[in-house]
Amino acid sequence: MRKKTAFIVLGLSFLTIPMDQRLATILFAIGWVLLEPWIILREAVWGIRMNLPVKKGSTFYLLKRGKRFKYGTFIEITDVEHGSFDAVDEREFCLKSKLLLDGMIVDPDAEYALIYVKRNGILRVFLQVVVEGVDPQLLKTRVARILYILTRHLDAMGVRYSGPLVPDLPWISPASRKPWCIIPILAPAVKFIFNPPEFSLPDSTIVLLFLTGLYSLLSSYKGYRVEGRVVLVVENSSLYSTPSYMETLQKSQWFSRIMGVLDNFMLVARIKLAPPSLGETLEKRAFRLYERATAFDKLSLMAKAERLYTAARRRMLGRESTYLAKIVAIFESKSDSKTFSKMLEDLGFTVTVDPILKGFMEDVYYG
Questions:
Q1: Is 172 exposed, middle or buried (0-12, 13-18, 19+ CB in 10 A)?
Q2: Is 217 among the domain residues?
Q3: Is residue 233 a contact partner of residue 351, using CB atoms and an 8 Å limit?
Q4: 19 phi, psi to nearest 5 deg
Q5: pTM for this one?
Q6: Residue 311: helix, strand or coil by DSSP?
Q7: Is residue 111 part of a domain?
Q8: Does residue 196 belong to any structural domain of this protein?
C-alpha cells in the first residue's frame, strides 16, 4: 500500500509540473520519502541487517534489541506417523493436520517457525520457539514451559523429535562493504558548489539523491549477504476460498512431491496467532469495498469484496484458527527457485523472486 501511494504521489508531481513547479517539487519529495530509497541503498552498500544471537548455547540462544530480549530454541522433527501419503480418509487427514498445528501454538504471545533445510538430498525439519521480554531468566522459564506442553502434544500426535538444540542455518555470510557505489549518487550535487539549488524539480531531485546517499553512507553497520535466490511470499490468496478436504489432501501430496525433487534450499515459515479482531477487520474492509463497488459500478471491486467477505466468514462463523505467516525460501539453484515459485502460485500464493529485501530477512533466521 505504501509503495502504491508513493508511485501515485510521484505521478501527480510530474502531472503538476506545467501548472505549479513548487507543488510538483513538494509532491515529488513526499513520494520520495514514502518510497524509502535509502533502505535499498543501505542494503546495496552495507548488506542486509540480521538479528543474530548475542549469546548462543547448544540448546538455546539470546537476542537483544535495545532493552528487550528474545529467547529461542529449536526442536528437530525426525518422523511423523500421519503423513499426506499415509492418509486413507481425506477428512481425517485434514482434521489431524489442523489439530497438530493448533496444538503447537501453546503460548499465543510466542513466535513459532517451521524451518525446512535440505542439503545434498538430506532434509531436516525444525520447529522454532521464540519469546520476547525484558528478563532473560523469565524468558528461559517460559520457553521451558512451552517446550514441555509442546512435546507432550507432539507425542500424542505421533510426531518424533529430538532436541532442544540450536542448528547452524545456512546460506548467509558477512557482506563485503561497497561505499564506492554511492559516489555516482553524490556526484551531481557538485554543481551546487557554484550555484545554490533552486526550488525546482530537477534541483530538488539532486538534493534528495545527495541526502539519501549521504544518509546511507553514514548508516554504517555489520551487514550480511544471502547466498542464493530469495523467494518471498507476498500474499495468500487461498484465504479467500474454502477448499474441500480432498483438495487440501491433494495439494499436500503435491507439495511433498515437489519438495522431494528440489534440493539445496531453506524454507522458513514464521507463524504467529492472528488477533481475535481479524475477522471484524476483514468484514469492515469487505463492506467498505462493497460500498465503493456499488457507488462506482466497479465489478473488480465487487469481486474483491466478496473474497474478503469469504475470509471474514471463515474466521467469524467457522471459528477457524487464523495465523499471521511470513514465508521466505532461499535456493542455491535458479531453476529450483522458479519451480518452487510456480508451485506456490498454483497453491494460491503471490510471490516475488529476488526482491529488494528492505528488512524482510532481518528476523528470518532467529526471530
A1: buried
A2: no
A3: yes
A4: -90, -45
A5: 0.80
A6: helix
A7: no
A8: no
